[in-house]
Fold this sequence. Notes:
Elements: H1 2-8, H2 11-31, H3 43-54, H4 64-67, H5 70-85, H6 87-97, H7 104-114, H8 122-152, H9 154-169, H10 188-202, H11 205-217, H12 223-247, H13 257-270, H14 286-298, H15 311-325, E1 331-333, E2 336-338, H16 340-367, H17 379-390, H18 405-430
Antiparallel strand pairs: 1-2
Amino acid sequence: MIRLLKVITLPERLVTGTFLLAISVGTLLLKMPFSTNKGHISLIDALFTATSATCVTGLTVLDTGKDFTLIGQTVILCLIQIGGLGTLTFSILLFHILKGNMPWSAKLAFESAFTVNPLKDFYNYAKRIVTIAVVIELLGMLALWLYWKNFWGVTFSFFLALFHSISAFCNAGFSPFSDSLAKFRGDIFINITVCLLIISGGIGFLVIDDMLKFIKKRQKLTLHSKVVLVTTFWLIVGGAVLLWLSEGGHALKGLALKEQVMVALFHSISARTAGFSTFDLASFRDASLYILVFLMFVGASPGSCGGGIKTTNLAILWFLIYNRLKGRVETVAWRRTIPSETVVRSLSITIGSSLFLAFVLGLILFSVPPALEKEGWSFIRVLFELTSAFGTVGLSVGLTQKLSDLQKLLFIIVMFVGRVGLITATFSLARKRAEPLFRYAEENIMV
């Protein structure tokens, strides 16, 4: 019994278990008659929507605004908020309110998810995370509400503003609008507001906290924050330039230059796990979809609301290659040596994620009947949709609504692994184990 309890309370088991609990409750609530306008939806559709919301993915098999009632949309919004900030964040706050003693394994999981340094006061740090999130979401909601209240009235625009602010900050991509944010493609204010919310939720709470300390106390940024900010900047700029070069004379040809630039910039930001769209991506060239696949695979930063392999892992891979080409054994970044354990863990996550995605991609491709291969089920489009699920992005070229029940189940697994699996893998690799009493003899392999 004691051994079983130890297994259950392992950090990775707690993370997985709390997410599964949230998804299960969300599925039951969305299955209720009061959640949908039709009175009922299939169990697989309820499970898909609950998983997509809790894992802040944004892929939908139903129309959020048309198929779900106000109660159903509120359930989705709550799942987004819980999934975005992390179930353990709310668990620590709840344990504190109930005067309970949070298991040490849960504290270890929380610490690994949100910071690189040991924590002394878990409750205050969790409270700080929630405070930062709420303040940013309220500011975003206020900006959107003041802008939209002249179009949809005070009450309805308030709900729209709240929904989009939380969905954007949590990098979820859910929207009550059937066309996402396409109607605001040329609106500079909406584009800037949503993009700032997405970036704020995607850089991670540790970076936000670090930036606040830099502004208030002139405290130097940590190496982690520098890596995240620089990598995020180049991914946004590089992605926007490449998308504009690819589609400026193609899908975006009929738009004014200002709108072309905004569409390219918006999708370069949104592709990094947010999932909002201002243009029909089904009309994009394969080259553009390839660019978006890369951005979606990288995703957001550690300790954030987003998924993907994380910006820091991409940066570590770059620093590793750069230093090896210079003949340096250590992985150095800005006159700081990155620990070899961190480099190995980063490579393990990147390679493991690639292999997992390739495996599921093969299953999806095998499940597509030959007759449908010419109806939009090309390799790049299936890869795009699957990477969107794995990176918890939510961008779609229209294949998600065509999935069979078996394919929906595979996508549910991918969304769950994309949000939880990488975290649990990190915990598993990071756990300190006893040093072996002996080592095996070395033998070289040609590489």
